[in-house]
Amino acid sequence: MERMRTCLVAVALASLCCVAHVRSSASDHRYKAGDEVPLYANKVGPFGNPSETYRYFDFPFCSSVPLKEKKEAFGEVLNGDRLVSGPYRIDFLSEKDAEIACKRKLSKEEVARFRTAISKDYYFQMYFDDLPFWGFFGKVDNVGKADPSDCKYYLYKHLVFEIFYNKDRVIEINVRIDPRAVVDVTGDEPVDVDFMYTVKWKEIDVPFEKRLDKYKSSSSLRQIQWFSTLNSCVTLLLLTAFLATILMRILKNDFIKYAHDEESADQEEETGWKSIHGDVFRYPKHKSLFAAAIGCGTQLFSITIFIFILAVVGVFYPYNRGALLTALVVIYALTSGIAGYTAASFYCQLEGTNWVRNLLLTGSLLCGPLFVTFCFLNTVAVAYKVTAALPFGTIVVIFLIWALFSTPLLVLGGIAGKDSKAEFQAPCRTTKCPRDIPPLPWYRKTLHQMAMAGLLPFSAIYIEIYYLFASVWGHRIYTTYVILFIVFIILLIITAFITVALTYFQLAAEDHGWWWRSFLCGGSTGLFMYAYCFYFYSAQSDMSGLMQTSFFFGYMACICYGFFLMLGAVGFCASLFFVCHIYRSIKC
User: Measured between alpha carbons, how far is 455 from 525 in angstroms, rounded to an integer?
Assistant: First the structure.
């Protein structure tokens, strides 16, 4: 335990160092009149497919100025950001009116590309002094036209920048399109385009520290989220009261009954969960795999806690590009020792001998599916030439992090767990011959129990899941981390209570195979989350195409699998505590 505490402290210190680095790397954003304010063009793509993004200059926009690529951080590359110097020059407090950025003669092929992009609602994203803004390529005039071939396609050529400042700092930027300045790209003939822009400056008294508040969730959205959280809290209270009342009453009657049987000293055959006291702590089948799953689930739980700590500290403010992905990679590597220690320690408690094989299984149980999924999806991204395709150098960095940090920490944690000499403290001795499990009705089978165990926790969090999906797979901004943390705590408590209740009913039916059942029932919420992905994809989003579909279902499969491991470990730990408690309360 002392080594585990040391590992946790080290991860916390490293996370805080990451926070300090992120904050110290930001510039002071102060300018003098006439100074050039950095403007970077990031990416373009169809509005309905957030993962299908391309470089800005893959399209024939203005490129008369020398292109300069911005040096990107590790997380920005993972996020698909590819920033280059923008086509517009904006100087601090310098206004411009219909300034021509460049003149382009679009060929037939370029006109066709713009027309196709406009039909798919292509947008562009840029950053001005680290403030993001967006705009669409053009518009489709389909009013009164029943035949799609009669539609008119117009390309916007004039951007109007409205920039708000406070003394020597930029506070806000709004970009709108001049609806009168358009170019008809309906036909298949070359077109001359004069790309123009207008810059207007206005002074406001909003402090620099609050300039990102406009990107945060609206008050009405927060009210909806708090209402859904309150609904989940009510569900939790009702469930807790119901299970506590029922289980405490049933357990009290069981304790009285078993105590009376001991006092009467009759020779009647034992029934109920007491009758399987010689088998309830019989080690599960495939104990190496079971211990590895518990270790990975514990690591994922630790990662989640550290991510919430960083969120509360304020690292993941809106559009801190790549901070979340960087934190996930770093914290995963640093918490590998927790997975190794937990898995090896528990495996040795189960009297396992091949701890090296157990460590290999622990290291590949989560990384294996992630690696296979990444290889497939990155190949698809390379084929589509999107910015989500990771460069070879970034892949090498990820491999080095895994090889030089994650794997050694996993091995060190495994050695510490093996040497901990911890013993499994079972309240009852296990008999040599296993007891036969009586025939069970259909609703007590594993799959049906998993369905019951996963439905209630998912129903308490599905509203918050929608907002998360709309942020990750859409264009909404998620900043209500306090609400998310409360919902996460509710999820853990409901999962623990449901798993404990189902474990008790399983033991009361004289079924002693509760080890794997409690893990599967606890993790079944992850399966419900993945089932919700199909509904969200078809009914709540506009995603389409092979690339976006494969990204959505591929990465969501990995995320839901991670939730399955984490909640499975939570369910098993809660059931183990409950089973040990009730069997210590009786004489066997």
Answer: 7
Q: Copy the structure tokens of residue 173.
A: 């930027």
Instruction: State the maximum Cα–Cα separation within the chain, in Å, rounded to a whole number.
Output: 102
Rounded mean pLDDT of 309-324? 79
- How many other C-beta atoms are found inside a 10 Å radius of the C-beta of residue 21? 11
The confidence score (pLDDT) of residue 330 equals 93
How far does Cα 405 stand from its chain's mean position?
A: 22
Structure tokens at 106: 């679009």
pTM for the model stands at 0.87
* Distance from C-alpha of 181 to C-alpha of 195, rounded to nearest angstrom: 9
| Tokens 């290889």 -> residue | 375
Of all residues in the chain, the percent with pLDDT exceeding 90 is 54
Tokens of 22: 């992120």
Non-local (6+) Cβ contacts of 422 within 8 A are 345, 348, 349
DSSP-derived letter for residue 282 is P
CA–CA dist 399, 463 (Å, integer):
36
Is the CB of residue 333 less than 8 Å from the CB of residue 409?
A: yes
CA distance 146 to 258: 79
The torsion of the CA quartet 563, 566, 572, 578, rounded to 10 degrees, works out to -100
Q: Are 563 and 525 in contact (CB under 8 A)?
A: yes
DSSP strand pairing (131-136 vs 122-128): antiparallel
Q: Are the beta carbons of 113 and 59 closer than 8 angstroms?
A: yes
CA 493 to chain centre: 20
> Could you identify the residue written with the tokens 């989940």?
232
